[in-house]
Amino acid sequence: MALTIFPVAWSLFTSLKSMTLLDLMTHGGDYVGLKNYVDIFRDSLFWNAFKNSFLFVGLSVVGQVAFGLLLAIVLHNKYIKGRGVFRSLFLIPWIITSVVAAYSWIYILDANLGFLPTLGYKSALIAWLGLGRKDWLTNPTIVIYVLAVINIWKGTGFSILMQSAGLQSIPAPLYESAEVDGASSLQQFLFITIPLLLPFILVNLVMTTMITFNVYDLILLITGGGPSHVSEVLSLFVYNTGFAQGELGYAAALSIVLLLINITVTLLYLIFLRSKETSQ
Asked: 34 pLDDT band (50/70/90 cuts)?
């Protein structure tokens, strides 16, 4: 408990001061009250990161949960051979570190080193499909979507794990009874699988949202938030403000705002889950 409370309390205390890295080492810094919080809502870069965060998180969460559910259902089918092997393979992107994942995608998409741009010169099909383009990581229009796809690739394994656990908790006799009553596979999925899997899906949504809101290392390594801040999300904005610019007080205030956003989104999920439980 202390390991959770102390960092939050320290961040809250620091957010009320004007503090640099030098002030941190000399135990200095001037008390400024709520000035940092007022400055946040006047900061255009904050609103830019806020918009990027919700786009990145929204795409990532929907993609991870949807693909995770689809793959979990496929791998739950008893006619699929080697299901354990496939589950292990799908978990590899989730298990590997962000550094390995980031550089793997850089070597695929980078304009100078990338596998796809190089292949585009040699394959007419790749060039025709538009996959040989060189600006995957530098085009302001598409870079945030590219990062979301990379994050979906990395995080879907966790969703597969969550949904597989949910599917295995559903009693098989329910499906057998439904089949005897003449229910189709689609009806079994809609009226048995989804309702009983809903708590697992909502827990998956909560955890995936919180994890994705705090992703910064993957984006830092691939684009650094560029070009011109178009791929800078809130967590990366906090990192850049605190460690690249040395404005620890302002960064601490940003981290408190990010924490409040996480709590708000989680509470909304929990309220929705409670309403579903009471309606059943």
From this structure: very high
| Rounded Cα gap, residues 16 and 84, in angstroms | 51
> What is the spatial distance between Cα 247 and Cα 95, in angstroms, rounded to a whole number?
33
Query: In CATH, which superfamily holds the domain spanning 34-279?
Result: MetI-like (1.10.3720.10)
Q: Are 119 and 56 in contact (CB under 8 A)?
A: no
254 Cβ contact list (under 8 Å, min separation 6)? 40, 46, 234, 237, 238, 241
What confidence tens digit (pLDDT) does each residue in 196-226 have?
898 888 889 989 998 999 999 999 999 999 8
The answer on pLDDT for 279 being more than 70 is no
Q: Identify the CA nearest to 32 among candidates 17, 43, 19.
A: 17
Closest by alpha carbon to 212, among 221, 204, 224, 222? 204
The per-residue pLDDT for range 87-100, each reduced to its tens digit, is 888 899 999 999 99
pTM more than 0.85:
yes
